[in-house]
What does this fold into?
Amino acid sequence: MSQSYRAIRRFGKRSTLSRVADVIWPPRSLLSEASVERPGVIEPELWGELGFLGAPWCVRCGFPLPRDEGPEAVCGACAGREPAYDTARAALSYDDHARKLILDLKRGGRRDGLPVFAEWMAAAGRDALGRADFLTPAPMHWTRLAARSFNQAAWLAQALSRASGVPWKPAALRRVKRRRSQEGLSASERRRNVGGAIKAAGRFDGKIVVVVDDVLTTGATLEACARALRKAGVAEVHGLTLARVVRPTDILA
Ligand SMILES: [Zn+2]
It folds into this structure.
């Protein structure tokens, strides 16, 4: 039996099981144990606590700005060191609620929130999505993929492609070196750790690309993706994530 056939069978079994589970157990809120009427719903009192991001924000990295200084305003970090990507946007500020949504997705393999995450991301990334030729997920090294059996960034990219109508390429980028997990590393350690580990798979001359990931922490992964895509001829690279770290104290959390 080929590797891919086994993977498809395993995937098929899991989705059948989750469909059965939907019938036996009522859908749960994405943020609590509360029963809700359909998958992907959040009860109103917790919905109101979600930290949705919006303007005014840095035109480059999407960092929220304390006051509106016009559509071209940049944050201190981007003024000091220009990012390799054109823009980055995120739907949510990374707080306790966003952390739960992301950990359920990434460690728990919970997929019922994907359609609603995709809607939030489509709203946050409207400008870039309106110009994009394709979406692609931030890549995971194949050994990590084999251990976990899924890449949450690919799930988000697929859901966002459905929500936005922009086509997605699952493998425009690949990780050529396995590096240690970025968790617990500082910004400069993250840049060193991920530098040179990502390559584009082919030429994409003149294309406008949106790189999709679950969370933007220091931007080191997006920077590495952007450098790889530029080498492959890409004209513009935009990052779009479900959440982004706003408080520096959350980086090590
Ligand atoms: Zn910025």
